[in-house]
Amino acid sequence: MSKQEVNDRHVIWSNMNLEVDDWRDGYKEFLEINELDDDPNDENKLYEYMVETNDEYLSDERVNLNIQFSQPIIVIGDIGRWNGRVTGYKMIDSGNIKDCLYSDTDYTEWYVDKYGDLRAEAVHHDGTNHYLYRVFKDGVTDTQIENLQDKIYNGKATRADITRVTKRLGDEIASVYGFDISKQRQTGEQAR
Description:
Blueprint: H1 3-7, E1 9-14, H2 20-33, H3 43-64, E2 73-81, E3 84-92, E4 107-113, E5 118-124, E6 127-136, H4 142-153, H5 159-165, E7 166-167, H6 170-177
Antiparallel strand pairs: 1-4, 2-3, 2-6, 4-5, 5-6, 6-7
Helix pairs in contact: 2-3
């Protein structure tokens, strides 16, 4: 990934590329505050602290992103499998952004891209999955939802198909964290 691509994303949470050295001072402070006699140089305990604390941060992000929509959210996936890549989708019927922040993969990073889309990269033993999260627009019919699902399932969905019946989540996320994203027209979002 290029440096520009990294700068074009606002990371919500990640457990990719965690470095124990970045957590060393925090671990020492944790031991002191809690008056624990553990060895601050114990690499295994430091690693445990890093993982557990980072996981707690994910719980915090779910609280921050408790944003309810009136429509369901669709997750459009480009799935890396042992036998190649496939497309698919999953529905988040709750319509709440916090429910997007769950994964059963080894490593995950959720971020808002420069176009205002919530996305994730999820690494597992067979490869990497790429997810796009979109909420259905108010007034979309069940038939329109089913048509998009069919196109995704058959690998024929275009960016225009997706933006016709869904909208990005980044605007609401950006308002929580206070970052700016480009202001594109919601009905004619730029294809990428």
